[in-house]
TrEMBL record:
NCBIfam families in the cross-refs: 2A51
InterPro entries reported for this sequence: Chr_Tranpt_l_chain, Chromate_transpt
UniProt record similarity statement: Belongs to the chromate ion transporter (CHR) (TC 2.A.51) family.
Protein source organism: Paenibacillus aestuarii
Protein name stated in the entry: Chromate transporter
Lineage, highest ranks first: Bacteria, Bacillati, Bacillota, Bacilli, Bacillales
Length: 401
């Protein structure tokens, strides 16, 4: 009997991996599109969970820092086949874009990044894509004067004192502001469906403790040892742990950790960010490109594992407690403030390094405006925008130089 159960468990693991790999090969369009693909595959076609349970899981992953679509995939895999199921669900969804971006990193290492016209086109692509992300997030996360004020103040302070520590302080201050500003706000009553998880609260607490131990302990360990891979792991773990609001918000955090420290040039950073829009799967695999540019295959593996590890620990740690947490008005108010700060952090990154590095002439601005219109109004897929941007960068050089 146990042998039959084990065989069934192994079959389920391979099933989860196969389905997630298919999604990893075909899910273009960013986190919102990923969630639509997941709903179609996991809920409508395979009926691994019902609509309400899926909505609850999405709500949890939007609440937590980290890559929301990847966390939803991890949660579904865990619901289906335990912790190992969560691991293979992440692996299948992530692997295709990791391979593509590592290959792109090796391709670029033989180029003079400052002189490649198509690379400049990719930098202009980043302008259009981040502008679209700011507008979409701003409409949803800063719908009133108080939250717009939090966002603008966060952006201004981030630009005047551009440090990673200040970003943490601003996120914490925004949580306090949201808690106070929305302490009396009326919210719709919610009666969520309890998610049946193969993890109890004690195990969840262990995962959550591991998250905080690494977040606090890695910088301390980094300070007393001199090992480059530990530095890489700490930088990418912290970036993955402090991202609220989706994949695009990781951009300023990674820029501080890689460009400001001299690990990678600004040109290479923005070129990779543009290329990351052209591949399916999670935007967080941008870390794989950065790791490969700095340390080859080993650097890519360390950076990828580090940036996604917080997502694992938070999902597995929070799921057993989620139904109680999401009913708390205090938690909801703090989250409203944090989300507003997220828009401000992304707005600051839009100006520096994205705009200041990409828009150097009126022709650059014209190309950025065209790409933005194609993305935001014409609804063309991001990979098409990337291709047009790369060709446009080359065309600008031919016409104006």
């Amino acid at each position: 009997m146990s042998e039959r159960v084990d065989k069934k468990g192994i079959h389920t693991i391979f099933e989860v991996f196969g389905v997630s790999l298919k999604l990893g090969l075909t899910s273009f369009g960013g986190p919102i599109a990923h969630l639509a693909y997941f709903q179609d595959e996991y809920v409508r076609r395979r009926q691994w969970l019902d609509e309400r349970s899926y909505a609850d899981l999405v709500a949890l992953c939007q609440f937590l820092p980290g890559p929301a679509s990847s966390q939803v995939g991890i949660g579904i895999g865990t619901l289906r086949a335990g912790v190992l199921g969560g691991l293979v669900a992440w692996l299948g969804f992530t692997l295709p874009s990791v391979i593509a971006l590592v290959a792109f990193a090796y391709l670029l290492q033989g180029f003079d990044m400052g002189q490649a016209d198509w690379v400049h086109g990719l930098k202009i692509v980043a302008v259009a894509i981040v502008a679209q992300a700011i507008i979409s997030m701003g409409q949803k996360l800063t719908p009133d004067r108080s939250r717009i004020t939090i966002a603008i103040a966060t952006a201004a302070l981030s630009l005047m004192w551009p440090t990673a520590l200040l970003q943490i302080v601003l996120i914490a201050a925004s949580a306090v502001a949201g808690l106070w500003l929305y302490r009396t706000a009326e919210r719709k009553a919610s009666v969520p469906v309890d998610l049946q998880m193969p993890i109890n609260k004690k195990t969840g607490a262990v995962f959550m403790l591991m998250f905080f131990v690494l977040l606090i302990g890695l910088p301390i360990l980094r300070g007393v040892t001199a090992h480059h891979l530990l530095d890489v792991f700490d930088s990418f773990y912290r970036s993955g742990a402090l991202v609220f609001g989706g994949g695009h918000v990781v951009l300023p955090l990674l820029e501080r950790e890689t460009v400001a420290t001299g690990w990678i040039s600004k040109e290479a950073f923005l070129a990779g960010y543009g290329a990351a829009q052209a591949v399916p799967g999670p935007l967080f695999t941008f870390a794989s490109y950065l790791g490969a540019m700095n340390g080859g295959i080993r650097g890519a593996l360390v950076a990828t594992a580090a940036i996604f590890l917080p997502a694992f620990l938070l999902v597995l740690g929070a799921l057993p407690f989620w139904n109680a947490l999401r009913r708390s008005p205090s938690v909801q108010g703090a989250l409203m403030g944090v989300n507003a700060a997220v828009v401000g952090i992304l707005l600051a990154a839009f100006y520096n390094p994205i705009w200041t590095s990409a828009v150097l002439s009126s022709a650059d601005f014209a190309l950025a405006a065209i790409l933005f219109a194609m993305l935001y109004y014409w609804k063309l897929p991001p990979w098409v925008i990337v291709m047009i941007g790369a060709l446009g960068g080359t065309g600008l050089h031919v016409l104006f130089h």
